[in-house]
Amino acid sequence: MPKLSRRAQDTFISPFRKMLPIAAETKKQGVKVFHLNIGQPDFDIPESAWKAFRKIDKKGIPYGQAEGQLKYRKKLCAYYRSKGHDVEPGEIVVTTGASEGILFSLLTIADAGDSVLIPQPYYANYLGFCQMAGVRINPILTSFEDGFALPLPEQIEKNISPNTRAILLCNPNNPTGKVYTLPDLKKIVPLLEKHDLFLIMDEAYREFVYDDIPYGSTLDLAGIRDRVIVIESASKRFNACGLRVGGVISRNPDIIEGVSRYARLRLSPPVIGQWLAQYSLQASEMYFDTVLQEYDQRRKLLMKKFQDYPQIRVNAPEGGFYLFMQLPILNSDHFCEWLLKDFRHQNATVMLSPGTGFYSSPGLGNNEVRIAYVLKQENLKRAADCLIEALNVYEYTDRRLLQEQPVGT
Amino acid sequence: MPKLSRRAQDTFISPFRKMLPIAAETKKQGVKVFHLNIGQPDFDIPESAWKAFRKIDKKGIPYGQAEGQLKYRKKLCAYYRSKGHDVEPGEIVVTTGASEGILFSLLTIADAGDSVLIPQPYYANYLGFCQMAGVRINPILTSFEDGFALPLPEQIEKNISPNTRAILLCNPNNPTGKVYTLPDLKKIVPLLEKHDLFLIMDEAYREFVYDDIPYGSTLDLAGIRDRVIVIESASKRFNACGLRVGGVISRNPDIIEGVSRYARLRLSPPVIGQWLAQYSLQASEMYFDTVLQEYDQRRKLLMKKFQDYPQIRVNAPEGGFYLFMQLPILNSDHFCEWLLKDFRHQNATVMLSPGTGFYSSPGLGNNEVRIAYVLKQENLKRAADCLIEALNVYEYTDRRLLQEQPVGT
């Protein structure tokens, strides 16, 4: 039998994947599993969008435009205008989720063997998309201690190689919750110019910014508009991950042409999803306010829960809906599996994302986990109690840390 | 400004793309353009599917399973069982259109630099998907004279190189209309075994086979079940290209695992499209019969129209909804552009696909065009009249051919 390709064999597998059958087994035993492991919001799309959806009266569902339906792109422009960005329909290519947008962007700006600089920890699937495109990642460490801020330009510069074609940032950041402001981003502009780099900015979580932090969109970063590629996501914006509607935005017509060539190969992004995304954009600002308020309450609930446990270290997220936490554990893969297999608290347990999945440098993330706060507050409380109780009984802890900061004090 | 990647610059652009702005200009002048250039059926999905669709009462549209919704895959299995193939849900990965299925299959079985053998003429976008995956095409010529039959095994073998990982076939064939029967396919089995190759079989058009020709699905090709990867398409099956729902089917668990790894990176295929595809599978066999009957009438209409013009050479398609024609022209790109720019018949013209787009070997396809018979019969008649009239007045014809077989005799 012929073997699979080397790249298929090497393709990144999320640690969470390996835990799925274990979680299924746990549920079979009648144990409640709180899913904090996946960024799947529990909100619905705007009610007005469902209403419009049920009235759809079409004849046939033909191919849409490769670059996305013009009607939808126009609505998207109106949305961006309301956020202060003057975007034209011709500067947008609608993609099948942000995922496809990232892949097409990588293919457009980098050849096989080129590399892209990404601060780690980073969204695990970036590694997979880079593997698909044959692109290497130059990881650059950001640290818990300084709130996962962008490294200093001189540190970033040390990690740029002659093959580096772009810096890829996620803002707000998944998994760290860091929000880059415009002044943050301006600091790397000279680097982009000096080393002739593109800036790929994953803005999938741009709706979710807390405490009126001045969110910095790269769309209008002065002087380098031609270098910027923004990835956007209707699926995340409207809490409808199954839509698979995202997009690439760029002021650089060459980028739009490059991305469009890949878009044309697959003929069109999902048409019905675009209808729903378009109807959703007609919803009022109220929709976003309500969702953000609820996330903010969840965020505060968790921060309050954990504040009395110094062995749990966590920065309040500035954006997104993830907590990236340091725990007194030595092997986050083992801990997360153990939670599912062996730990029960009031007949329940939690499923977390091990920190190891967010780093490409081996050995990192072993004392970290990511929580997605996508559960109702009552369940979130119970899930947090589970985690706290679990840390009381887990055996493979970092004893040094525990001795310094004993549990429950 | 940094340059685009080499591969983005080199990405295949369909000749039809270059003609789009010309067609738009023609329409602005009030001229009717008959679109025979794209395989976009003019049928609707089953009415019962729309009915179920309008009753959808969901809360939220979360990520679906990476491998596709289990409910939909089960319905798909029932469909295949009705066609005599015993397929299990675990042997299917639902993809975002057949396009994604082809890309994931290529990535799974071939590394960058490997090659795949494909008979030409072939569906133009295969070239693009191969470029995305860094895979080369070994083209092998099939000819008009023998109805685009599969070449003899010894001819195929000459084109197999040490880097060849698979043979890719399209059945029924786009653009040639050829249908491979099971005996046809059995002839290449020894080759697959001898050279340890996979067989990727694009069955997007499997619903469309005429004259009860015994269609050969590779799903159960004896002895090589583990080598076979079938690409399937709900979008084509239900004339709803905008759904973007396709799939990969394989009996080989390694293939399913490899394809699933890529599928997991993009999290899930479009969820709403799968709902509609699932509802559509509940439609009666009547739906397929009605569609096929109409296509058959269109096919016969065109064959009858062209039979009196010996300078138009065309084989009756055995499947699909394309005619691949030889015309007395010297440059099909020029002819197709000229039709849009300079030719009018009763204030109308036709848009065709130039044959050159279906070959990777330069110089081929210059006297060929592809027609998609996706128009109502009345319009199809007018479009055929346009084409016949155009050949009467077109100047850059192959005079030798015209002298032998003068127009209108």
Query: Mind telling me the C-alpha Rg of chain A?
Result: 22 Å
Q: CATH architecture of the largest domain in chain A, please?
A: 3-Layer(aba) Sandwich
Percent of residues in β-strands of chain A: 5-15%
What is the CATH top level name of the largest domain in chain A?
A: Alpha Beta
Helix/strand structural class of chain A: alpha/beta
How many structural domains in the coordinates of chain A? 2
Low-confidence region ranges of chain A = 403-409
Give the overall pLDDT of chain A as a whole number: 92
Tally of helical segments of chain A: 16
Largest interface: A-B, 75 and 75 residues
Largest sheet of chain A: 7 strands, mixed
Q: List the strand order in the largest sheet of chain A.
A: 2-8-7-6-5-3-4
Count of β-strands of chain A:
13
How much helical structure, as a percent, in the residues of chain A? 25-40%
Globular, elongated, flat, extended or rod-shaped: what is the shape of chain A? Answer: globular
* Secondary-structure element order of chain A, N to C: HHEHHEHEHEHEHHEEHEHHHEEHEEEHH
- Distance separating the two termini of chain A: 60 Å
Instruction: Indicate the multimeric state.
Output: homodimer
CATH topology of the largest domain in chain A: Aspartate Aminotransferase, domain 2
What would you give as the CATH superfamily of the largest domain in chain A?
Type I PLP-dependent aspartate aminotransferase-like (Major domain)
